[in-house]
Amino acid sequence: MYDYKSILFKSPTPFVIIELRDNHAIIKESNAAYKLYVTDRYNIIVEDILTDCIVNFNYRKIKIDKTIYNVQIEKIGDKSFIAWFCENEYLPNDMQENLLLNVRKFDDVFFLVSDGKIIFVNESYENMFEETCNVPCSVEEGFYKFIEKEDDNEEIYYDYFKVIDERVQIKTKKGKKWIWIRSNPIKNDKNQPIASYIILTDITNRTNDVMNRKETREKFFSFVSHEIKNPVNMILATMQLIEKKVEQNVYDEDILRHVDLVRRNSFRIMKIVNDLSSKSKIELGYLDFNPSNEDIVYFIEEICESVRDFVNINNMNIIFDTDEEELIVGFDCEKVEKIVINLISNSLKFRKKEGGVILVSLTHDDDFVYISVKDNGIGISEENMNRIFTIYERVKDERSIVKEGTGIGLSLVRSFAELHNGSVSVESELGKGTEFTVKIANTTVDEDQNTKYHHLTKEERRQNIAVAFSDI
């Protein structure tokens, strides 16, 4: 029988034993290696990271002086945990053996697997699966048989010689549960995998809470989108009717000024609803991505022409430049249009009072298409540069002409670029201007995935632009 505690505290790998009090991790004990490598000045930082790991069910990396440690946590009691600070991906063998310390007290299910068989399991197995496990037994009998399959022909297989960290659903006699499965291989002195330990945590309540919140948010934004857009559309239809009455001399022309005010504010409401709805769908994982093979040069040039009058009204000029006359790319037309209009809108908000120019350029290489929107406006300060892509952050700059905005636009630009396997970057200099560059994958979609794009009429695009620029 191993003297586990004696070996544990002699381990050359830093570790701490911690307790969770009021959702905060407190270090109770530590071994000599931890005291050697982790000085008192790091203890508060370590406690904060351990709290985040435990409360949010995540692993973390922490840099202590010049060494990066992978923090791995295992539960050993009701509110007690062991946290290892490993310098590599896998736990050292003596630590892996020592994980057996107090495993019978684990609320989690703990397996040891060797040669495809479960050779050890703790008592928590019966609580999770509502039956006993007669070891040794195959992994299929001890665990796989409970995993909920999408169809009967689906094969379940995990390579336990690799690190596993994922969520699965199981079905027991008393119903379904969500289980968090983690495993790490155990290696011999020749660095060859010989076994693996597996830990299963019941996260049913947490998962159901997340799903319920997700469903509630989805219903809320669906309700907001429907219940606000309908009356706004009615208002806009009424405005059009009033304009016709003015043309027919039924109403005084002065009323048009009030009609325009109502229309602009109606468009602002629609912009807020559209932005909130898009961002909510992204966060909930429901945002559609409908790429079609289109001439992206013509598409972006058409957008620039559509916004030209509005840009000119705001004392700016817009120029479009391209390195190709035609370039067929698979992209979501709706998303790319929102990207370009959002960036042009941003240039208008941070324009100079006179002599403003917006340069929209398109270049490409074998891997990406680059869409750049550059202006000679007031620029963005270094402080604000760190915040502009954060959702609901509105840049407060007294030099800017426009003070309004939802704080969602640039966050959407980044999300839409990522949908196209791309990204967005920004360069800016105070007093000289700003340049945003969006890159999207230079690929085409297969014919069976090619979505037929509804080409907007002039009136549809005009209204989209009016909505997008309603806060300028």
Please describe what this structure looks like.
The chain has 472 residues and is α+β, with helices and mostly antiparallel strands. The chain has four domains: 91 residues, PAS domain (Beta-Lactamase, 2-Layer Sandwich); 97 residues, Beta-Lactamase (2-Layer Sandwich); 77 residues; 177 residues, Heat Shock Protein 90 (2-Layer Sandwich). Helix content is 38%, strand content 27%. The protein has 13 helices and 18 strands. The strands form four sheets. A six-stranded antiparallel beta sheet has the order 8-7-6-11-10-9. The longest helix has 44 residues.
Which keywords apply here?
472 residues, Beta-Lactamase, 13 helices, six-stranded antiparallel sheet
Topology:
Layout: H1 4-9, E1 15-21, E2 24-30, H2 32-37, H3 40-55, E3 60-64, E4 67-75, E5 80-86, H4 93-98, E6 109-114, E7 117-121, H5 124-129, E8 137-138, H6 139-142, E9 164-172, E10 175-187, E11 193-202, H7 204-247, H8 255-284, E12 292-295, H9 296-313, E13 316-322, E14 328-331, H10 333-349, E15 356-364, E16 368-375, H11 382-385, H12 409-419, E17 423-429, E18 433-441, H13 458-468
